[in-house]
Amino acid sequence: MVKEIERYGIPIVHMATITTISESVGANRIVPTVAIPHPVGNPGLNSEDEHALRKELVKRALNGLATDITKITHFE
C-alpha cells in the first residue's frame, strides 16, 4: 500500500521496529522504532520520558515527510 500511496505523490513514512520489512514492502522513508510489542513507546519509562520519546519519533517522521529523497532513507 505504501508504494501505491506514494505513486499519487503523497509521501509516506513507515515507522517500524524491523526496518528490513519496511524496505521489502517498498517504503522509502523509514523511522526505526523502539521494540516489537511497543513500537512507539516504552512502558518502562516514566510518563515524562515516554512523552519525550514519542515526541522525538513523531519529529523524525515529520522530518521524513518534509525531506525530498531519491532512495530508501532511514530517519534516525
Architecture overview:
There is one protein chain. This protein has 76 residues and is an alpha/beta fold. The chain has one domain. Helices cover 42% and strands 13% of the residues. It has three helices and three strands. A three-stranded parallel sheet has the order 1-2-3. The longest helix has 20 residues, at 47-66. It starts with a helix and ends with a strand. The mean pLDDT is 93. It comes from Syntrophaceticus schinkii.
Could you list some keywords that capture this structure?
42% helix; 13% strand; three-stranded parallel sheet; alpha/beta; 76 residues
Indicate how many domains the architecture comprises. Answer: 1
- Report the strand count: 3
Helix/strand class: alpha/beta
Output the helix-strand order. HEHEHE
Portion of residues in beta strands equals 5-15%
Mean pLDDT: 93
Radius of gyration: 13 Å
**Spatial shape:** elongated
Number of alpha- plus pi-helical segments? 3
Main beta sheet strand tally, sense and closure: 3 strands, parallel
Distance, first to last CA: 23 Å
Helix content range of the residues, please? 40-55%
* Uncertain ranges: none
Strand order of the largest sheet: 1-2-3
Topology:
Layout (H helix, E strand, L loop, with lengths): L1 H6 L5 E4 L2 H6 L4 E4 L14 H20 L6 E2 L2
Parallel strand pairs: 1-2, 2-3
